[in-house]
Amino acid sequence: MTEPTKSDADAPIFKWVTTKDGDFKRQVSSFRDVVSRASDAKFKAEPNRYHVYISYACPWAHRVLLVLTLKGLRDIISLTVVDHLLGPNGWKISPEVEGATDDPVNHATYLSEIYFKADKDYSGRYTVPVFWDKKTGTIVNNESSEIIRFLNTEFDEWSSAPGVTYYPENLRTEIDAINEWIYDGINNGVYKCGFATLQEPYEKAYVTLFAALDRVEDILKNVRLNITNEMSTDGVIFLSEYVPCPKYVHRS
Fold first, then answer.
1. Which residue, among 45, 43, 33, has the nearest Cα to 153 in the 3D structure?
2. HSE of 165 in the Cβ direction (CA atoms, 13 Å)?
3. In 10 A of CB 135, how many CB atoms?
């Protein structure tokens, strides 16, 4: 696949900034159901029922892949990796591209087709990750922070790491508090830097981002000697954004 042309750049998929102040405004995820072990659950935890769409180019999708792997669920939840390049028609499913895979469930060419299968009137962005229910033919959830929470607990019957939790009850208040500023300052902060169209909002986001990174560094300095073999969801959330961080924030 080639890079977007100048005319491609005018496609709606690239219109990340819709306000005159030049700030990046994130779309709120539209599908917010959950998978549960409860017998009366709308979406019940079952092996081989669900499929996930991700992109290696998307940190929000990274966290889902991390938890899928850490919990040992790759054998019972199937996966499609879309093309790493976001084109004018959104994420493309291009198995011929290195690192990408096909879609054995819906046989789609673009991720947008998955959204329209779930809701024919859908008008938002076609984002990853997508957690798809094969049984009912719809999207369960496209909010990564919620997906990793139910992956953490609801599939333990089939997990290779049952009982291992990345959201321990005794740390949830602390994790939630940390996640709040990590999300705003780092997870979303790199996008505020990368997609700002004016210098002032870019500089504001840049300062906030590196202040948050300094704050994380201070936390790690204090806990390094007490680290065990456990990682919490805030660690997953932070790492998925920290590794690709430089490419988002650099501006010449």
1. 45
2. 12
3. 11
What integer best gives the mean pLDDT of the chain?
A: 84
Structure tokens at 233: 């969801």
DSSP lists the bridge partners of residue 117 as none
H or E segment at 194?
helix 189-195
Instruction: Write down the catalytic residue from 45, 57, 58, 182.
Output: 58
Q: How does pLDDT run across 106-126, given as a tens digit for each residue?
A: 999 999 999 999 999 998 889
- Residue 192 main-chain phi, psi, to 5 deg: -60, -35
Q: Tokens 């990796």: give the residue.
A: 81
For the chain, counts of helices (H) and of strands (E):
8, 6
CA atoms within 13 A on the CB side of 248: 24
- Is 245 annotated as catalytic? no
* Residue count (the chain): 252
DSSP 131: E
> Is 111:124 a contact under the CB 8 Å cutoff?
no
- Spatial contact of 48 and 76, defined as CB atoms under 8 Å apart: yes
